Amino acid sequence: MSKFIIIEGPDNTGKDTQVKQIIKNFPNEVFHMFHYFNLPFKDDLEKHKEYSAKMYDQMFNIMKEAPKNINYIFNRAHLGETVYSPLYRGYMGDYVFDIEKKYTEELRMELYLITLVNDPTLIMKRDDGKSFYKSEEGVKAEIDGFVRAHRKSTIKNKLLIDIGKMGIEEVGNVIKDFIKEVQYPFTSYDQMEINFGA
Question: Is 13 left (phi over 0), alpha (psi -120 to 50) or beta?
Fold first, then answer.
């Protein structure tokens, strides 16, 4: 069965690292990787929104049209539009949920959403100065936005991890177990949340 894995969350929560962990933890499978960066129309909000809508619709269509047993990992995807647009661009990005909803039923078992969050103080310690946020309050607003977006998503197989002080391998093992449980279900992981903070 194909896997389409979306990794979301604020900057400096270890998304790149966990993409590598997924590949390491499933050594017999090949993954194609997509990484969504800042969009090219930052100074023209209408173009930005139009471009985003086309891009995210195409992202889901790539999954829908993919040959069977092809695996994709999407490092960042559509949820960021629902978080960053109201905080930094002055418009609501919830239109992406309408795009998502067109595809989630058909992709029901193949589609995974993994959202990583952490304590704002720990995120700020890793900051390289390139993120949108400039303070712990800004980080907190982004975290709240991603948690809200994760819960609002219509993707069936989703995992929200507050990583706290977990190590890379620990987080990787939680994700690996979640993916395996969806593939070979014995208990329900639907809308599972893992909180190791504090």
Answer: alpha
Q: pLDDT band for position 178 (50/70/90)?
A: very high
pLDDT at site 43 = 77
Kindly report the number of other CB atoms within 10 A of residue 102's CB atom.
13
Task: Report which secondary-structure segment, H or E, holds 196.
Answer: none
DSSP string, 88-152: IISS--THHHHHHHHHHTTTTTTEEEEEEE--HHHHHHT--S-SS--SHHHHHHHHHHHHHHHHH
Q: Domains plus CATH for the chain? A: 4-195 (3.40.50.300)
* pTM of the predicted model as reported, rounded to 2 decimal places: 0.90
